[in-house]
Amino acid sequence: MSGPNYPNTRRRTRLDAQFDRIRAREEAGLAKSGGGSRAVKKFLNNRLAVFGLVVFAIIIFASVFAPLLTPYDPNKIDLRGMLQAPSWEHWFGTDRTGRDLFARVLYGGRISILVGLGSAVLAAIIGVLIGVYTGYVGGWLDALAMRVSEIFMSFPQIILVLMLVSILGQSLLNLMLIFTLTGWGGIYRMARARMLSLREEEYVLALRSFGLSRPLIAYKHMLPNALGPIMVNITLSTAAFILQEAGLSFLGLGVPLSIPTWGNILNVAQDIRVLQTNWWIWLPVGAVISLFVLSVNFIGDGLRDATDPSQQG
Amino acid sequence: MLTYIIRRVLILIPMAFVICFLVYLGLELTPGDAVSHMINPDAAGSMNPAQLEALRQSLGLGQPFHVRFWSWFTNLVQGNFGYSMSGGVPISNIIATRLPATLELAAVALVFSTVIGSLLGVVSALKRGSKTDSALTVIGMLGVSIPEFFFGLVAISIFALNLGWFPVGGRSMPGYVTLWDRLPHMVMPAMVLSIMLTAGVMRYARSSMLDALSRDFIKTARSKGLPEWRVNLLHGFRVALTPVVVLIGFRLPVLIGGSVIIEQVFQWPGIGNEFISAVRSQDYPVVMTIALLSVMAVLVASLIVDILTAVIDPRVRLGE
């Protein structure tokens, strides 16, 4: 394909090539118009984001349908089959008590993803509920919420999480509560900042002059216009929470060890002998965690590019 | 300028006070008090409740909450953080022995990640849209997606266990004193700690550089006929770098969080290691004090960042 003849001021990049292709399509009258949201199309045009979505879907699917994919019980101890290397029978090998690691990774994914996604959604709900209302209303309520979030956010997150773990004790529910409590600040600030700029829009003034109640204006009419950045924030904090769960469980301070999670499978890798001789215990799980978090991050980036035209780079 | 600094400090003080209060509240709400840790549980069972009560009174534990808080707080300000529950060691001693190790690691990681991160970010911005740029973006994404401790495990397994280049963990061997002797111990933890930071700096430096390159003065420099490298380095890079360096302060929480886990992976005898073992043994005074100190460090860092930003960019202090 011979592209249009640009004056040769700078080197052509991938973006230029992409632009040329689009232009050629348009000139040929092939460009589709309408049909589907622009943001969705933009997202699907982003190769990394689509890759992320595919990997994300595969891992979620595999965890949800774990019983169909593996005949093994993740907690079944088999003392005759301890520390077996990967084979056709045990795809990821077995651990020190003979539990099938492939099954543990699949079932562990359920809990790890539940903790990550669940806490992110809970944190988002709290952050949005507070941020949208106080951002719109302003005044002392806003100032108070801002101060409280500042206090929460001045703690390095892991320190605050570990401090609360030591006070509240270890359990799955506690961990999710702690993540929610430590994670709402970021999304609250973003929702608030978005509301502060939306507050000046004319449609808000119009709604106010109709005499609509403040919660109705804030939640029903203004919130939908802030959804893009909120979705981005949920994906990115899901990634962060999954990393934190893995880190905490690796240290033995996250989800109780009796429940398989990605971090808990890695827990034994603190032992230098396991690290040296039984690579199959920690390497595949670590790769799965990394792949999952990577896919979530790609999706988050893709969402941001698709929904926020000001943040392109 | 001075009024700006004073105003910032005045905002900070009540916040620091509230955080101290919350931490003390946490300390009070956790089970056990000083007496239950001074006395062996077996002995406590056989002791007269009146005796225990007398001991509590003599330690001032019977006083009302606000009095106890105030005495704890004044002690804190004077650098007396109380005592560890295990062994009754003064917490200030623990901090004093552990802090140098942590600072050593953090300083190396900070310098390394800032230099490498901003270089890569600038290269990525200058070659925007190219293969190098996409590759660096993906690598940066990998850097923030792979758990730090997993990096640590892989590094130990490759470089310490298989190749034997570096020791598995610890800060030094017995009898090794000079920095040179300790260097091999430091390489792996410092590099692993740098990875996540570097990825963050790189992304930030890239967008900062892109921003700088789109300004008018770059066009002016180019139209003057300056060579491209001079435009990029002397005009673009200088402007782009300022926010990157200033933002070092904001990376402190990431650095603290990272070092907590990395110190554990490499058995580095720093504050983070101490913090984890305190959490494990439920040694609340140590947990709370370290948490408090880390918050204070973050607050002071953000204050310094604000002041630096105001020094560099007068619009910040005039705008408020």
Task: Describe the 3D structure.
The complex is a heterodimer of chains A (313) and B (320). Chain A has 313 residues and is an all-alpha fold. Chain A has helices at residues 14-27, 38-45, 47-64, 66-69, 101-137, 139-154, 157-168, 172-198, 202-209, 214-222, 227-250, 262-266, 272-277, 279-307. Chain A has a domain at 119-308: MetI-like fold (Orthogonal Bundle), CATH 1.10.3720. In chain A, helix 2 (38-45) crosses helix 14, helix 3 packs across helix 14 and helix 7 (157-168) packs across helix 8. Chain A starts with 13 loop residues before the first helix and ends in a 6-residue tail after the last helix. The mean pLDDT of chain A is 83. Chain B has two domains: 2-77, no CATH class; 99-316, MetI-like (MetI-like fold, Orthogonal Bundle), CATH 1.10.3720. In chain B, helix 8 (148-162) crosses helix 12 (252-265). At the A-B interface, helix 1, helix 6, helix 7, helix 11 and helix 13 of A face helix 1, helix 7, helix 8, helix 9 and helix 12 of B. Chain B: InterPro entries: BPD_transp_1_N (IPR045621), MetI-like (IPR000515), MetI-like_sf (IPR035906).
